[in-house]
């Protein structure tokens, strides 16, 4: 898929504020500093797109972008493990949970994981939460330029093994770098295929 246009739509505190669910939607989520803004900018080819919605302070919002006038990209702040005051964190977890389980046009959630880290409980718990709620997901391993190919193979094996302790099969996985655009075409093609399946389920 070629990207012709990528436009910020709005920031929404909760599901009820989100744009009308008229287009297929793909959400991106991950711990703080995992490289989410960089990945969104890399995918869309807009070097400052994800910063447009950057909120001052610790406000947590779901940020929508419309891509090619055809699909929504939703940027979700870190889930559960964000460095925010507990009260706000609980509120945000509730909002994000409701969005993830009830957003009717949500096709898939990309869960970002830093490829330099071994499997972390919070990431595995989050993947389990999506699985239990039957939310389709894919894993995106970020910052692959920071370690060697053999080191990333090793970490990926650990992540797969950790998931297979609880899952029968593995979700799609992508290895990416915002520095050298690794994984870009594969993710964009996967999104395009998923849109086609979503629009023509038979
Ligand atoms: P917050 O929104 O602050 O939670 O972070 P984020 O997940 O949006 O991460 P961001 O894209 O801001 O990147 C965090 C840091 O990692 C920045 O210093 C980036 O330059 C760096 N970074 C992100 N992606 C990559 C990558 O693929 N390779 C390398 N080498 N650095 C990266
Ligand atoms: Mg960011």
Write up what this structure looks like.
- The protein has 202 residues and is an alpha/beta fold.
- It has one domain (6-199): 3-Layer(aba) Sandwich (Rossmann fold).
- Helices cover 37% and strands 21% of the residues.
- The protein is built from six helices and seven strands.
- The protein has helices spanning 36-44, 49-52, 86-102, 121-132, 149-164, 184-199, and strands at residues 6-12, 25-30, 62-67, 71-76, 106-114, 137-142, 173-175.
- Strands 1-3-4-2-5-6-7 form a seven-stranded mixed sheet, with helices on both faces.
- The longest helix is centred in the middle third of the chain and has 17 residues, at 86-102.
- The protein is globular.
- It binds guanosine-5'-triphosphate and magnesium ion.
- The site of magnesium ion has 3 residues, from α1.
